[in-house]
Design a protein that fits this description.
Number of strands: 4
Radius of gyration: 15 Å
Largest sheet: 4 strands, parallel
Distance between the termini: 17 Å
Order of helices and strands: EHEHEHHEH
Strand content: 5-15%
Number of helices: 5
Helix content: 40-55%
Structural class: alpha/beta
Shape: globular
């Protein structure tokens, strides 16, 4: 990872995203982890920084288009150029068709499809 200095990991403060954040940071990569859970960001950021790892957190809601628009540029302004994108964040929703809530389905598509697509587009434009 010697050529890579900075990574962005969505859903980076819990589960698989946290494991990816920690693995990258242990290899010397500065990681900016995005999460929609402030407590997880604070707790895991403190723990990882306490272990001497370069980790920062950003509270973001990937289902909010206004937060997603231009996000890559804003993150690079704050943290510097980003070399790695890990689109890890995701949500689930289970219901029968008759019981489905269209707003929850829209949120699922925003987080699981449109947010990763938008971040890939922004990353490719910047890289």
């Amino acid at each position: 990872m010697e050529n890579f200095q900075r990574a962005l990991v969505t859903g980076g403060s819990s589960g698989i995203g946290l494991a990816i954040t920690e693995a990258l940071a242990q290899r010397g990569v500065q990681v900016v982890m995005l999460s929609n859970i402030a407590e997880d960001l604070e707790r895991e950021g403190l723990r990882l920084r306490g272990a001497g790892l370069k980790v920062e957190g950003e509270l973001r809601y990937l289902d909010d288009r206004s937060q997603l628009s231009g996000l890559w540029g804003r993150l690079e302004e704050s943290w510097g150029p980003i070399d790695i994108l890990v689109n890890n964040a995701g949500i689930g929703y289970h219901a029968t068709l008759c019981e489905s809530d269209l707003e929850k389905i829209r949120q699922l598509f925003e987080v699981n499809f449109f947010a990763p697509l938008a971040l890939c587009q922004q990353a490719l434009a910047a890289m």
